[in-house]
Write a structure and sequence with these properties.
With 448 residues, the chain is an alpha+beta fold. The strands form 5 sheets. Strands 1, 4, 5, 6, 8, 9, 10, 11 and 12 form a 9-stranded mixed sheet that branches. A 6-stranded antiparallel sheet has the order 15-17-16-19-14-18, sandwiched between helices. The radius of gyration is 23 Å and the shape is globular. Helix content is 33%, strand content 23%. The protein folds into 2 domains: 4-256 and 435-446, no CATH class; 260-410, no CATH class.
Length: 448
């Protein structure tokens, strides 16, 4: 595994802010306008002012959301709202949450992790990145000179030895605790004992690390480091050689991967029989029934089978569900249209959906980005609320109106991430959704 190290985090002083629940916030990529406003109102020192400061009228080069974030960070440090730990530490991090009526606790720990360019070491990505978010995060990093939110890294540890070491070190220690807007409880303990940290570094030394979430932030950290190197400001032990990372063992019992279902607009009108004909010999199909509210039944059958090659389709024209399972002929076609990818990649449900069904069989490679949702309840809600709108002269729906097609698709597993990443490949966007998101505001990693 790449080098990990303790660090002196910036943390909220609870004597200044009171309840930690009032100042934590999720990462930038899941904060919509409504939640942003809600967090702004929650507390004048809510972390959203750093993580995703809002645009203001009159913004320009010298005064914008990035410069405002940097000013808040500087002021909060000088006012004592944020303080720097007196000694380097590793931070044990638990998230307790509900899913399908059960309570889960995901356990990990926060460290500095030495940066390695993808493809040159033992840090592996699994999803593609986009230029826009990387530029946004780079501007914020330049302004604040800090890692504000964490990369989510997975590592193999069948016996959970690394986490168990830290759990033993914190048994008699009271954590700081906060609850977020989704009722996820976040707890954190600082471990500064040098012997424990040295033992942890030894346990992690030979392990690969797989990026579960935060690809844009990781690549941004590499870009920021390279900028400092080009300017002559980077020394071998400069903090910018590292990035803030939460490490979670792949065998942790609280590790949960949720599906990301798709709802499509922009397709020509299609009923279930038309879809079955289009899928042809590539899928064995069965029309399950009618009505958006049948989604939970369809999903239960897909989930029980546990087969990446089984997809549930909803056709908007006749509001019917089709259960489709890829055939040998479908797999052969997939191999022909995606020869640059491994069999592991081609077997993913999201790969079959986008490359084989949408792009090839439906011939709709230029569709607008689908709407992504994580629960069947959200699927039902969106399908039932979609209003029928007029089509243009070509018969194509616009961005408003009914979803012409929905797809229930299995999530990639942790083992898929391991295998596909080690092939040097990246999965299609939104192949995984690790719930819950890591929270911002527990620690800041200064890069000065």
């Amino acid at each position: 595994m790449p080098t990990i190290a303790p660090f002196r985090a910036l943390r909220y002083d609870l004597k200044h802010v009171g309840n930690l629940s009032n100042v934590i916030c999720p990462p930038y990529d899941v904060i919509g306008a409504d939640l942003q406003n809600q967090l702004y109102k929650l507390h004048p020192a809510n972390f959203v002012r750093l993580e995703l400061n809002r645009d203001e009228p009159g913004d320009g080069e010298g005064n914008n959301r990035y410069t405002r974030a940097a000013k808040f960070l500087k002021n909060w440090r000088s006012e004592g709202v944020l303080y720097e730990e007196p000694q380097p530490a590793v931070y044990v991090y638990h998230q307790t949450f509900q899913s399908e009526g059960r309570s889960h606790t995901r356990r990990g720990f926060m460290v500095r992790c030495r940066l390695e360019p993808f493809g040159e070491g033992r840090i592996y990505p699994h999803e593609e990145t986009l230029s826009g978010p990387k530029q946004d995060r780079l501007l914020l990093t330049r302004a604040c000179r800090a890692n504000l939110s964490q990369i989510f890294g997975l590592f193999p540890d069948e016996q959970n030895a690394a986490q168990n070491l830290l759990e033993a070190a914190t048994q008699s220690v009271t954590p700081v605790e906060g609850t977020d807007h989704l009722e996820v409880v976040h707890r954190m303990w600082a471990v500064s004992d040098p012997a424990t940290i040295t033992q942890l570094i030894g346990l992690m030394a030979d392990k690969p690390l797989f990026i579960a979430d935060g690809h844009h932030r990781y690549e941004t950290a590499c870009n920021y480091r390279d900028e400092l190197a080009a300017s002559g400001k980077l020394t071998p032990e400069h903090a910018a050689n590292y990035v803030l990372m939460t490490c979670v063992g792949m065998s942790d019992p609280g590790l949960l991967v949720l599906p990301t279902h798709r709802l499509f607009r922009g397709l020509r009108a299609m009923d279930s029989r038309g879809l079955v004909e289009t899928l042809g010999q590539h899928f064995s199909t069965r029309i399950v029934g009618e009505g958006a509210d049948l989604a939970p039944t369809v999903w239960d059958e897909i989930e029980a089978g546990g087969d990446q090659g089984t997809i549930g389709f909803f056709t908007g024209q006749d509001e019917r569900w089709v259960l489709a399972k890829v055939t040998d002929a479908g797999r052969q076609t997939m191999a022909e249209i995606a020869p640059e990818h491994s069999a592991d990649w081609r077997g993913l449900g999201v790969s079959l959906l986008h490359r084989l069904v949408v792009e090839t069989l439906l011939g709709a490679g230029e569709l607008p980005k689908p709407k992504y949702v994580h629960s069947v309840e959200e699927v039902v809600e969106n399908l039932e609320e979609g209003d029928v709108a007029e089509r243009d002269s070509t018969g194509v729906m616009g961005q408003a109106g009914r979803f012409e097609l929905a797809a229930l698709v299995m999530p990639a597993t942790v083992e898929h991430i391991r295998r596909i990443s080690q092939h040097g490949e990246r999965m299609p966007a939104k192949s995984t959704y690790f719930y819950p998101k890591l929270i911002g505001g527990l620690v800041v990693n200064p890069l000065e």
